[in-house]
Every structure is written in structure tokens, then in C-alpha cells.
């Protein structure tokens, strides 16, 4: 395992996101919607650095197992979500923007609920991987195309608890 972003670097990146979010949503009704499970560490740190009023909601997107996308429906409770985003600005928060498919599936669902606006914030964006025609609005770090774990990101449901972001070596990915 090779450390890509130290705890200090991650903290600085999160702080940067928090300042931008305060600027963008000052005086506006904001609901931050975290994408389970990967966003929980970022979301928990991020909201504590933001001093403007906000609401928090969670959605469950499609799951990955290892590096493979698991088929199956998105588990989103639209009724709960509708109440949280009605007449509010939505900021979707995820750990990483890779192909963009997760966010691309969630945005139309949220859009149906008629929020005032929808933006996306991620800790990481992988270079050269996007398969969609949009980019996240707020990105803390651009990283190379490597498989990363830690700070919420998992490999086979492990490593989420690491306080830094690390790239797994090929032999660790095979294990
Ligand atoms: P996308 O839909 O391809 O953008 O992928 C986004 C989701 O894939 C993230 O929410 C992560 O759960 C997962 N993911 C993508 N790349 C990685 C990685 O390098 N490590 C761990 N999870 C990843
Ligand atoms: Mg995820």
C-alpha cells in the first residue's frame, strides 16, 4: 500500500471544500446528500467545518465489490429524500468521481424531486476515467488512475477506516 494523500493533506483538502461550500450557499437553504457508504468519513469531517446552517441526508447508490460494479437497483427512499430537498439547494457528496456513473444516476433522481439546484462535491477525481459529459462542481484532489482506499473508500468493504488515502499495489488487489 502506498500513501497518496496524508492525513494532513486530506484535512487541507476538506477545509478547502468547506470554504467553497460556505461561499456558494451563504444565506441559502442547503441540504448535503451523502452517497453511502464511501462518503461518510468525508461528510462527517466536512459538515463540522461548515458554519452555515445545513441539513444532511443519505442515499445508497449501487455497490461495488472489489473493482467490479454490482448490478441491482439503487436503494433510494424517494419520500424521505423529497422532504429533505424540496425548496432547498442540494449538494451531492461522494468520496470519488471515477467513471461518473454513480453521480449520473443520482442526479436525475434528485432532479425529479425539484430542488432549487443540484451540485456535486467529491474528495477525489480520477484522471482520464469519466464516461459522462459533466464534471463534479467541487473537487479537492485530482488523482491518477489507481485504485485507492481509506478515508471512506473501500476494497471489498475493508480499509474505510484509514485516516489517509492510499493506493493498493497489484498484489493487494489480487488478494
Ligand atoms: P463512478 O460511478 O465510476 O464514478 O464510481 C464512483 C464510486 O465507485 C465511488 O463512490 C466509489 O464507491 C467507487 N470507486 C471508484 N473508484 C474507486 C477506488 O479507487 N477505490 C474505491 N472505490 C472506488
Ligand atoms: Mg461509493
Structure description:
This protein is of the alpha/beta class. The protein has a single domain (8-143), classed as Rossmann fold (3-Layer(aba) Sandwich). The protein is 30% helix and 29% strand. It has helices at 7-25, 40-47, 78-85, 101-112, 170-174; strands at 2-5, 30-36, 55-60, 64-65, 68-69, 89-97, 117-126, 138-143, 148-149, 165-167. The strands form 3 sheets. Strands 3-2-6-7-8 form a 5-stranded parallel β-sheet. Helix 1 (7-25) packs across helix 2 (40-47). The mean pLDDT is 93.
Give a quick precis of the structure.
The protein has 175 residues and is α/β, with parallel strands linked by helices.
Helix-strand pattern = EHEHEEEHEHEEEEH
Per DSSP E runs of 2 or more residues, the count of β-strands stands at 10
Give the tally of structural domains. 1
List low-pLDDT spans: none
* CATH architecture grouping: 3-Layer(aba) Sandwich
CATH C-level: Alpha Beta
Order of neighbouring strands in the sheet with most strands? 3-2-6-7-8
Ligands bound here? inosinic acid, magnesium ion
Overall spatial form: globular
Instruction: Classify the fold: give the CATH topology.
Output: Rossmann fold
Output the structural class.
alpha/beta
| Percent in strands | 25-35%
In whole angstroms, the N-to-C terminal distance is 13 Å
Q: What's the gyration radius in Å?
A: 16 Å
Amino acid at each position: 500500500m502506498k500513501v497518496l494523500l496524508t492525513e494532513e493533506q486530506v484535512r487541507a483538502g476538506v477545509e478547502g471544500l468547506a470554504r467553497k461550500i460556505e461561499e456558494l450557499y451563504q444565506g441559502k437553504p442547503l441540504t448535503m446528500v451523502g452517497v453511502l457508504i464511501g462518503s461518510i468519513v468525508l461528510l462527517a469531517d466536512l459538515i463540522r467545518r461548515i458554519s452555515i446552517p445545513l441539513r444532511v441526508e443519505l442515499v445508497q447508490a449501487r455497490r461495488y465489490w472489489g473493482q467490479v460494479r454490482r448490478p441491482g437497483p439503487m436503494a433510494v427512499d424517494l419520500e424521505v429524500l423529497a422532504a429533505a430537498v424540496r425548496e432547498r439547494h442540494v449538494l451531492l457528496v461522494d468520496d470519488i468521481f471515477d467513471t461518473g456513473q454513480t453521480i449520473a444516476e443520482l442526479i436525475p433522481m434528485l432532479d425529479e424531486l425539484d430542488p432549487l439546484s443540484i451540485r456535486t462535491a467529491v474528495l477525489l477525481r480520477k484522471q482520464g476515467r469519466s464516461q459522462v459529459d459533466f464534471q463534479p462542481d467541487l473537487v479537492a484532489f485530482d488523482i491518477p488512475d489507481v485504485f485507492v482506499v481509506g478515508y471512506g473508500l473501500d476494497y471489498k468493504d475493508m480499509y474505510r477506516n484509514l485516516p489517509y488515502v492510499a493506493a493498493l499495489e497489484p498484489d493487494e488487489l489480487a488478494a
